Amino acid sequence: MVAAMSSRLSDYDYDLPEHLIAHRPLSRRKDSRMMVLHRNDQRIEHRTFADFESYLRSGDVVVLNNTRVLAARRFSDDGKIEFLFLERLDALRWKCLVKPGRKMKIGATVQIVGSAARVETILADGERIIALDREIDLHTGGLLPLPPYVGRQSDVEDETRYQTVFAQIPGALAAPTAGLHFTPEILNRIPHVFVTLHVGTGTFRPVQSEDLSDHRMHAERFSVSAEAAKSINGARRIAAIGTTTVRVLASAQRMNGSIMEQESATAIFIRPPHKFRSVDLLLTNFHLPRSTLLMLVSAFAGREFVLAAYAEAIREKYRFFSYGDCMLIL
Fold first, then answer.
1. DSSP string over 135-192
2. Burial environment of residue 101 by CB neighbours within 10 A (0 to 12, 13 to 18, 19 or more)
3. Is the pLDDT score of 4 beyond 80?
4. Nearest-angstrom CA–CA distance, 224 and 231
5. Dihedral through CA 249, CA 250, CA 256, CA 262, nearest 10?
6. The domain 73-132 is classified under which CATH number: 2.60.40.2970, 2.40.10.240, 3.40.50.2300, 3.30.1490.20?
7. Which of 93, 126, 94, 133 has the alpha carbon at shortest distance from 110?
8. Which of 4, 64, 141, 220 sits a CA distance of 20 to 30 A from 329?
9. Is the pLDDT assigned to residue 44 strictly greater than 60?
10. What DSSP character marks residue 219?
11. What is the per-residue pLDDT for 140?
């Protein structure tokens, strides 16, 4: 099926009632609802994630993103300044988002867990280069940077539930949320491999330009091991878990569609009429209106079909976004 072509931002919009945004995870990961979209005959089924395995065939390989979310949200020791550590430039220098920015001009210094943090540079987009006088451990002690629509700070429950059960490589600022539905028991029963893409804040940044050809994605680091590439290339079908996995596969493929071992960064913007050569099935959560993630899904299943499915999901009261339900596209 060919995805309907549109380069207008307004063509990827929909109205979502506030009460359908999931602010907390379900008590059990596998209990999420799963809308199944059949691209060939434009058919929709309503199932649960526990049925996911039944859609796999012999020879399929499930590809998951094993990035781990950093506790990258920190406050100054006096509680007045909020930092989001975006990118490590070297041992003592980080690119950060800082709030309120008006208090953090060049040279301004505050203490973060006893380390002096000084504004070295202010970038054009308002981000700061922060110089520390000693290293800060972003694996412990901070807060997970939950998406803004969750509407709260992270707590003890999120330390487990905003990570996938297979999260391994630290470096993300957001979870690969389609993977949140999996349990160790389900993983043990299905053929799978891992790739890594460290999700950045670009995931949540709104698209500003009505003409999508003017939009530029932020680069994100990714890697594909030789073992993973071999398994993917030998698969009958490839089931990508999440849009981040799709971006890895699209970025690491050769001209013939095969996947190669690679460590690099990608700023790929996948939208209609992108042609997929390395993904046959896609499991994904429900995404924000006007987001690049919704555009990627529209490229895979067709914009009109996806928006019709979203309208049905709203009628059926599916739970939306990171802690919400999921969609399997066949």
1. ---TTSSSB----GGG-S---HHHHHHTS-TT--EEEESS--GGGGG--HHHHHHS-E
2. middle
3. no
4. 11
5. -60
6. 2.40.10.240
7. 133
8. 220
9. yes
10. P
11. 79
**Residue 45 in tokens:** 């089924």
Angstrom distance (rounded) from CA 207 to CA 231: 35
Domain boundaries defined on the chain: 9-69+145-329, 73-132
Confidence class for position 204, pLDDT limits 50, 70, 90: low
- Fold: same for 9-69+145-329 and 73-132: no
Q: Give per-residue pLDDT as tens, 66-116.
A: 999 999 999 999 999 999 999 889 989 999 999 999 999 999 999 998 899
Cβ partners under 8 Å of residue 275, min gap 6? none
Burial of 175 (0-12, 13-18, 19+ CB in 10 A): buried
| Other CB atoms within 10 Å distance of the CB of residue 216 | 9
Q: Which helix (H) or strand (E) holds 34?
A: strand 33-38
**What pTM value is reported for the model?**
0.93
- How far apart are the C-alpha atoms of 230 and 239, rounded to whole Å? 15
DSSP-derived 3-state class of residue 33: strand
Q: What is the DSSP string of 270-290?
A: --TT---SS-SEEEEE---TT
Is pLDDT at 52 greater than 70 in this prediction?
Answer: yes
> Fold for domain 9-69+145-329?
QueA-like (3.40.1780)
DSSP category for residue 298: H
230 sits in which H/E element: helix 226-233
CA distances from 258 to 26, 190, 195 (A): 37, 22, 15
Cβ-contact 3, 273 below 8 angstroms: yes
Gap between the Cα atoms of 214 and 288, Å rounded: 20
Element (H, E) at 89: strand 82-90
Q: How long a stretch of residues is the chain? A: 330
